[in-house]
Amino acid sequence: MKNITMTFAAIALATASFSTLAATEVQSAPAGQQAIGVVSATSGNSLTSLQNKLSAKASEAGASSYRIIGASGDNHLYGTAELYK
């Protein structure tokens, strides 16, 4: 019985921590949040891949949201995002 309780507690904690790590992409600077930095990433030729990499870097940096402020490239994409918390 104790093992079942511990298992459910571990699952609940793991689920809660994953949901708090995800940074949300925004289109403009969010009200009530301040900029905490900038991250950059590179990707192949897929804009979705570039967005995913910027999102992952924002989450790693502890940002609650991020805004892509630049993306360029032809066969290799480069992007920059501003982080907010």
Automatic annotation (TrEMBL):
Q: Which UniProt keywords apply?
A: Signal
**What residue stretch is flagged as signal peptide?**
1-22
Q: Which domain of life is it from?
A: Bacteria
The keyword Oxidoreductase is annotated on this UniProt entry: no
- The YdgH/BhsA/McbA-like domain, residue ranges: 34-85
The record, for Pfam families, names: YdgH_BhsA-like (PF07338)
Q: Per its UniProt record, what InterPro entries does this chain match?
A: BhsA/McbA_stress_biofilm_assoc (IPR051096), Dodecin-like (IPR025543), YdgH-like_sf (IPR036275), YdgH/BhsA/McbA-like_dom (IPR010854)
Official protein name in the record: DUF1471 domain-containing protein
Give the organism, scientific name. Rahnella inusitata
